[in-house]
Specification:
By secondary structure, the protein is mainly α. The protein is built from one helix and no strands.
Length: 61
């Protein structure tokens, strides 16, 4: 079933609005995620062996 050009134009406009509104949120999420990953990297650089040992499964777990 084909959509009329009027409906297609409205859908496209809605997508553009959502995309424009979403950008600042996405950028903040990306920045937050980068900060978390940087923190994890720092911990691993200092305590890699200890960090890994905490995730090693012991018998019966």
């Amino acid at each position: 079933m084909k959509m009329s050009q009027k409906h297609q134009k409205k859908d496209k406009e809605k997508k553009e609005e959502t995309t424009t509104e979403q950008k600042p949120k996405d950028e903040k999420k990306k920045k937050d995620m980068d900060e978390i990953l940087d923190e994890i990297d720092e911990v691993l650089e200092e305590n890699a062996e200890e960090f890994v040992k905490n995730f090693v499964q012991k018998g019966g777990e």
